[in-house]
């Protein structure tokens, strides 16, 4: 059995791992000079391979029931066990994210994995770009040469639209459309949000971090750190709100700067202070917000302890749009679930599987993205 895998991102590498374990001949073609560029970029930002949590809790983070069902077949526990087999020990961080132990760097994880695959007989070809496919043959371009390769099973893990410089540039979308395969348009996810805030305010305070705040949007709520940027806001809790913001961008983002205080307790602190300014300092309200109150509120509102307390509990920011997809950590959109069976095979091309971010699903950062990629790689190469 000859399995051809195109793309050498984490989803494809997991597919290669299981295909070779199943005794198949495995060839991996990657258009860049090296493997796993986005995996290494993810590593720079903290390198959470997965996240702790029971299966029910874990699967609730995914946008589509189909991807949640895939993750249930190769879980966070399976992933940790597999990395252990590879010699990579992991630990659970205080936030529940699961990382390789401290001394193990992302490049080491990737190198260890690639060496393992090569030792098992997986053959890698770089600077090799998928040009076309039929039901049992692919056309690969290496330099100026076009080669045809027949396959028994083809796995496509070509990535989505974010960070195109890592190789995942969605050039495959037009090829898929020409074959009448339904593609859900890509949109930025886990992205910063452009907001309606005064330019002078953003320029003055970009980079400021609001710690331990609760942000909410419609029915979504998250505690964490929000970062002010020169365009608006970003940070893990904002990423968590992305799906809600996407579905109703006219609603404001609310920030609670004192989640441990009731509104009346804030009023009490402000009322007992010499003046509002002292009260705000006692409450440790971040400087940009004190500046906001002083600069943009009327005198009557600024001196009203009730008005200020309300704003401290629900400071509203109007979102305008998402940051460009190229900057986003991930995307939603991709190959429609209507095109796939439960083994991630294309219904009209039963020898071809799709893995990773190419498929239309969404999840927050914190290990949920990589876990889903790994799980698709496993499910796609399970013997059927
Ligand atoms: C800044 C950043 C931070 C992140 N942080 C986290 C995190 O903390 N936790 C988490 O879980 N996830 C994180 N991620 C997401 C994670 O990196 C992705 O989910 C994962 O890399 C997607 O894997 P993939 O295999 O589907 O695609 P990719 O990793 O994009 O790999 C696709 C591969 O296919 C190749 N390719 C494309 N087209 C062709 C073609 N025509 N022919 C041949 N090869 C082709 C590409 O060159 C690429 O190597 C982060 C991502 C970014 C950008």
What does this 3D model show about the protein?
The chain is an alpha+beta fold. It has 2 domains: 2-188 and 327-380, FAD/NAD(P)-binding domain, CATH 3.50.50; 193-322, no CATH class. The chain has helices at residues 10-21, 37-44, 55-59, 65-71, 76-86, 106-120, 172-178, 199-205, 236-247, 263-272, 276-282, 287-296, 299-302, 305-313, 368-380; strands at 2-6, 25-29, 50-51, 90-92, 97-100, 123-125, 128-133, 137-142, 145-150, 153-156, 183-189, 193-196, 209-217, 220-228, 232-234, 253-256, 315-322, 330-335, 345-346, 349-354. Strand 4 (90-92) and strand 5 (97-100) form a beta hairpin. Helix 4 (65-71) crosses helix 15 (368-380), helix 10 packs across helix 11 and helix 10 (263-272) packs across helix 14. It is elongated and about 80 Å long. The two termini are 13 Å apart. The mean pLDDT is 96. Bound molecules: flavin-adenine dinucleotide (FAD). Flavin-adenine dinucleotide (FAD) binds next to helix 1, helix 2, strand 7 and helix 15.
């Amino acid at each position: 059995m000859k399995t051809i895998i195109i793309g050498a991102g984490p989803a494809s590498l997991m597919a290669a791992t299981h295909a070779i374990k199943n005794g198949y001949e495995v060839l991996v073609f990657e258009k860049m000079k090296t493997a796993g560029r986005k995996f290494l970029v993810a590593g720079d930002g903290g390198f959470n391979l997965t996240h702790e949590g029971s299966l029910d809790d874990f699967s609730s983070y995914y946008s589509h029931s189909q991807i949640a069902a895939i993750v249930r077949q190769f879980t966070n526990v399976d992933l940790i066990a597999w990395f252990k087999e590879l010699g990579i020990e992991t630990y659970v961080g205080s936030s529940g994210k699961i990382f390789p132990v401290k001394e193990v760097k992302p490049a080491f994880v990737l190198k260890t994995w690639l060496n393992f695959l090569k030792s098992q007989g997986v053959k890698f070809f770089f600077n090799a770009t998928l040009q076309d496919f039929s039901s049992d043959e692919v056309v690969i371009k290496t330099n100026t040469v076009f080669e045809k390769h027949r396959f028994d099973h083809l796995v496509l893990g070509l990535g989505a639209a974010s960070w195109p410089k890592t190789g995942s540039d969605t050039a495959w979308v037009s090829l898929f459309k020409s074959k009448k395969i339904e593609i859900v348009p890509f949109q930025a996810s886990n992205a910063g949000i452009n907001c309606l805030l005064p330019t002078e305010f953003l320029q003055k305070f970009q980079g400021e971090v609001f710690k331990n705040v609760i942000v909410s949007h419609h029915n979504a709520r998250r505690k964490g750190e929000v970062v002010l940027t020169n365009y608006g806001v970003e940070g893990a809790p904002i990423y968590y709100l992305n799906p809600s913001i996407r579905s109703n961008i006219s609603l404001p983002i609310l920030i609670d700067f004192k989640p441990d205080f009731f509104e009346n307790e804030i009023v009490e602190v402000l009322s007992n202070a010499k003046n509002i300014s002292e009260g705000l300092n006692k409450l440790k309200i971040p400087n940009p917000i004190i500046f906001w109150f002083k600069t943009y509120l009327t005198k009557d509102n600024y001196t009203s302890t009730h008005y200020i307390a309300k704003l401290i509990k629900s400071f509203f920011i109007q979102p305008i749009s998402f940051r460009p997809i190229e900057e986003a950590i991930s995307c939603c959109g991709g190959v429609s679930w209507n095109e796939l069976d439960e083994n991630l095979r294309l219904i009209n091309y039963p020898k071809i599987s799709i893995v990773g971010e190419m498929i239309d699903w969404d999840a927050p950062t914190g290990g949920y993205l990589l876990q889903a990629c790994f799980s698709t790689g496993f499910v796609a190469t399970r013997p059927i």
